[in-house]
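Please, structure for the following, as tokens.
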Amino acid sequence: MQRPPLRQAKSIENVFNSAYWHLGQQDFTIGEIRRKLERKTENIEWIEQVLAQLIENGYLKSDLEFTIRYCESAFNNEIGKSAIQRKLKLRGVCSSDIETAIEQVVERHDINFDQLASNRLQSRFITFDGISKEKVYAQMTARGFSRAQIDHALSQHPAQDSLRSKMVIQAEKAELGPEIIKLYRKGKGQTLILNELKQRLIDVSEFEETLYQLELAGDIDFYQSCKDQLAKKNYDLSDYKEKSKAYSYLARKGFTSDEIKETMSPEQP
């Protein structure tokens, strides 16, 4: 959405008032305030006078001074180095000022990034109920911490043993029967279904019994499914090479040799 035009300044006092208002909201770099004032007036002389006065009176700091204050605040709020670098670059601060500021603040306040990451993790997550390992890493990475720092923080967390991957959480919630039916309806045979369930860490200790019950209930019929999958192809079963390709295709789909042989027998339509 396009921003509505600002009411233009009619005097340099209006420009001062605009600058003071913005600086009353938060700290800005000289470049940021300049861009805001350029929206308020096209009078470059007014802008330069206002900026010079703000700098002289201490309302505006040099980019390095601004960056040092920003880093101190960010570290105090448990934000990691890479997030600070990213945010400052977006605000137009040059890389040399960013690195100099970080170095000074780290030395002055004896910042330990491993400890900072640990403090952040423990203040944000008392337990890991309802959250996956992947989400924890994503959130901590967004806060500016490296993989090594996150690993260290997790090793110090009292609830570290309860943190599980997204796949494990989903596997624990999965019901074997419905999962088998979902894969069956995608035209997959039982060996492929079993392998996929194992890869997803779903408990398959009752796989054979569950298959038997689903077959009794008429929910699955792998012989019919095998025929349906073959019917989607145009293999010439009278040709040996074509027949071999058809067999390989159905085997890759997870059907058993008995199911494939019956499907491809001459008696089958």
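DSSP finds 16 helices and no strands in the chain. The first helix runs from residue 12 to 25.
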